[in-house]
Amino acid sequence: MEPTLTTAQLNELRELLLARRAELMAQMQQNRENLAPPSEDEGAVLQRNVAREVDQTLSDIDAADLVRIDHALARMDEGGYGECGECGCAIPFERLRIEPQTQHCVDCKSRWESRQAAR
Length: 119
What we know:
Layout: H1 7-34, H2 45-78, H3 93-98, H4 106-118
């Protein structure tokens, strides 16, 4: 497949991915700090436990997004970045700017979301 992204576009997208990766790493660090067990003298332990569950869920979401970012960076290095993982078509630069870690074109992503909604 002929590359559809210019070097400048790839560089811009790499910077977006690296910035988002750094942001996620900072969020995950904060979430890990929030997951520390509550102290005995802490009031409203139930509220603290709920907050800990939220922090754990956010960490899980961030970890999944981090995997997608690392996958996108690896695809850049391998030369396959910007191709839909399902149909193989080129993902438009505008879509990649919005979600640089995406692995699917709009059509394939829409079909996937429709299947998920039908479950």
